[in-house]
Amino acid sequence: MTWPLVFNLANGVAIVMWLILIFLPRREIVLTLVLYAGIGLLCLAYTAGVAGVLSGVWGGEASGADFTTIAGVRAIFSTDGGVTIGWIHYLAFDLFAGLWIARDADTKGWGRAAQAPVLLLTFVAGPAGLLAWLVLRGRFSLGGENGHRIRTAS
Question: Which of 97, 78, 76, 94 lies closest to 10 in space, CA to CA?
Fold first, then answer.
């Protein structure tokens, strides 16, 4: 299997899971699917990729690679294997953040239309979407657990 193929498959899994998370009804089976078939599969691909590169089985070794300097991290991402593994890392954690946001928003009474922009922002720019949710969840809740109610006109 080539790195471009692994990259494309991981992107495909992530996109399908994000569409499921944003558009399908939030039944427990759907959330479980996102967790295990999405996040779990991405984590497995990441782990296999790291193990394959570190063992030399899959190639992609970068000379001078380390996590302590910018040059060392640049060396990690200087190969197709490094870029693919790094990208899968982002995909897995952003999807995990999106799943947490969706569950938390449901608990707090947020409708799907109100959640969608935050989830889309998390999909596109993970930490920015997570930050947006952390700010919003603390300031506004629709009556769910541990939140402040938004006042509505009577």
Answer: 94
Query: Which sequence spans correspond to the domains of the chain?
Result: 3-139
Give the separation between CA 59 and CA 6, rounded to whole angstroms. Answer: 14
pLDDT in tens, the chain (154 residues): 899 999 999 999 999 999 999 999 989 999 999 999 999 999 999 999 888 877 766 665 666 667 788 987 888 788 888 899 999 999 999 999 999 999 999 999 899 999 999 999 999 999 999 999 999 987 776 554 554 444 334 3
In degrees and rounded to multiples of 5, residue 149 shows phi and psi of -75, 140
| DSSP SS3 for 45 | helix
**Residues 87, 7 contacting (CB under 8 angstroms):** yes
The model's pTM: 0.84
Q: How far is CA 88 from the centre of its chain?
A: 9
